[in-house]
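Quick start: what a row looks like.
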Amino acid sequence: MAEVNGNNNVLVVRKPCFDLPTGCPQCLSSYIYLRFAQFPFNLDFHLNYPDSDQIPYLEVGEDYVAYNNDKEGMIKCLKRDVGLADLDSGLLSIPDWISVKAMLTTWVADALSYELWVGFEEGSSSPVHTIYYSDLPWPIRKVLFWKKAHWIKQKHGITNENAVLKKEEIYRRANSAYEALSKHLGQQNYLFENRPSSLDAIFLAHGLVVLQALPESSVLRAKFSEHANLVRYVEHCKTELLGAAPPPSSGPQVHTYASSSASRSRSSSKPKSKPKREKTQEEKTFKRRSKYFVIAQMVAVVVFITLMTEVELEVDDGDA
């Protein structure tokens, strides 16, 4: 089992924004779980690789790294390998556990992804540009955003013909999930047995992004805000986990959420090197990818521009 030393544990996430320690829902969920489990760690921010499924990841000392895309997931690996507290102990047999988890990981998660990547597709005001892309060149931001939006449309089978019906279906399911979760929560501070669990980490990350990153005009934010106990639930845990919101500033507050330790900023395109230990195969692969990141994305830009040009030509020929 890897040795745990709070000074050497580093959770690498997307950068802080919207008065949150990280604007990425998945990163925020991991952050909240570790805080619930009272696991000591520093924060580090990876500003590149917006499409990497390895982030978030946790470096424990100099000999262990748990990645988000590990087969069992980062949290399960940490439970097994470093003794991270199992917040779900004794809860898995509760009848409502499976149904609540299903709602959070499907209808609720799908609605947020849809609103972030498709709901703002025609404009540049989507929060995802701040969360994932603001540190990248404009052409790369444009292509990566388009690729993700296209993937989400394919996932839900969205076409030009059924776009309105699919939108209504996604929001209807989200609203049904919010109603069920509101009824299940009642006046408790947590979803099960009034103590934090992994599902609270998932739902709180979702709620914080919905309430703080989405604009007031957001359909999802409006539906979530209709349930006063869900808003209270998020605000209660926000105060407990994140403390008071930082004052407005012209720059990112990279030290705002250092309640467990100091926060740092990782602006290079590859994970920091770790002397005195041999890198794992995954780390070597991650480092090797960094060498070709800019080239690969520039090729994507060229392909994107070429395809869009062909489409425009076809449209012009049709008009003629």
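That is the whole record. Residues 244-265, 267-277, 311-316 have pLDDT under 50 and may be disordered. Residues 293-319 form the longest helix (27 residues).
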